[in-house]
Amino acid sequence: MIIDLRSDTVTKPTSQMKEAMWAAEVGDDVLGDDSTVNALQERTARLFGMEDALFCPSGTMTNQLAIRAHTEPGSDVICDKHSHIYLYEGGGIMLNSLSSVKLLDGDRGRITAQQVYDSISPENDIHSTVTRLVSLENTMNKGGGSYYDINEIKKIRQVCWDKKIPLHLDGARLFNALVETGETPLQYGQLFDSISICLSKGLGCPVGSLLLGSKRTITKARRFRKVMGGGWRQAGFLAAAGIYALDNHVGRLKEDHMRAKVIGNIFHEKSEVEEIFPVDTNIVIIRLNDSITEVEYVQKLAEKDIRAVTFGKNLVRFVTHLDFTDDHLTEMRKKLAN
Ligand SMILES: Cc1ncc(COP(=O)(O)O)c(C=O)c1O
């Protein structure tokens, strides 16, 4: 049995999800004719209490479209130094938006209102970039699935209102945070100017992310999506998977979190492991001691058919997901025992 914990993106659609996909009504989405895409967009916009939504192939695209829509050349984007938008989107802030970053040192990726306030570029200073966007990530991938205290987000929101700077959320794994805190999408919709959510991570879809925002932001994003070649046609087959996932795969994320906690406990007993990041949601990050490198450790795990990824110096990441069951967990424990 292969235990694949490289990411929560490795899941395959369930048979019920496939049935929903094949049954989808579709049309040409570039012409606005795909009723299933429209239904998914309307549904998520309503869920978050936002005006509009745009269905896209990836979370990278939804983040980058938001950044493009909110900034103009010569801007800066304030974010944590470990943000996905900065580290893992191929320099898109620079390439797509001709903009720079102000990188903050957050607590496992969570930045504070004071840090944001202190890093906003001075007004009318011709020497600096112009701060045009603040971007948060929740849950935070590099922080090991850490999530924000909503009260801090409210304070950041206030700073952004005061300074008239839009606030974006990379919510690729927002539902993982929501099932832990009991907060609602509506609460998040009130706090952000744009939100990116992914369907192809914890929710188990083969493809798809949504950008949520005002009519104006989404109209701009739709245009940039087309420019990037991201206008798609009968995408309703994929949107149907998203609708199915919203109906069936949100509540169960708690199970992924429970299994992640068990994995964290298993590694407590391992001699090569120096530290385990707090396991808040579905991501487990372990820090190795000097007895082995992260590359060697991932290789050693692979030899036992356990797949994980290196995640920086001495760090290895595991992510639980829909296709990782209690049977996999039991098997993993056995494999690691010897
Ligand atoms: C926090 C976060 N944001 C955005 C993305 C980008 O999503 P995609 O792989 O669909 O481009 C990821 C992907 O892992 C992610 O972890």
Question: What report would you give on this structure?
Answer:
The protein has helices at residues 15-22, 35-48, 59-70, 84-87, 92-97, 113-119, 150-163, 174-181, 185-191, 215-227, 236-248, 253-268, 294-303, 326-337; strands at 3-4, 52-56, 75-80, 100-104, 130-137, 167-171, 194-198, 209-213, 273-276, 283-288, 306-307, 309-310, 315-319. It is of the alpha/beta class and 338 residues long. Helix 3 crosses helix 10 and helix 6 (113-119) packs parallel to helix 7 (150-163). It starts with a strand and ends with a helix. 49% of the residues are buried. Bound molecules: pyridoxal-5'-phosphate. Pyridoxal-5'-phosphate is lined by residues 58-60, 63, 84, 137, 141, 170, 172, 198, 200, 209. Pyridoxal-5'-phosphate (PLP) binds next to helix 3.
Spell out the blueprint of helices and strands:
Layout: E1 3-4, H1 15-22, H2 35-48, E2 52-56, H3 59-70, E3 75-80, H4 84-87, H5 92-97, E4 100-104, H6 113-119, E5 130-137, H7 150-163, E6 167-171, H8 174-181, H9 185-191, E7 194-198, E8 209-213, H10 215-227, H11 236-248, H12 253-268, E9 273-276, E10 283-288, H13 294-303, E11 306-307, E12 309-310, E13 315-319, H14 326-337
Parallel strand pairs: 1-11, 3-4, 3-5, 5-6, 6-7
Antiparallel strand pairs: 2-8, 7-8, 9-10, 10-13, 12-13
Helix pairs in contact: 1-11, 2-11, 3-10, 6-7, 12-14
The structure holds pyridoxal-5'-phosphate.
The site of pyridoxal-5'-phosphate (PLP) has 12 residues, from helix 3.
Helix-strand sequence: EHHEHEHHEHEHEHHEEHHHEEHEEEH
| Quantity of strands, as a count | 13
Ligand names: pyridoxal-5'-phosphate
Low-confidence stretches: none
Number of helices: 14
Kindly report how far apart the N and C termini lie.
Answer: 16 Å
Strand order of the largest sheet: 2-8-7-6-5-3-4
Average pLDDT, rounded to a whole number, is 97
Based on helices, strands and strand pairing, what is the structural class? Answer: alpha/beta
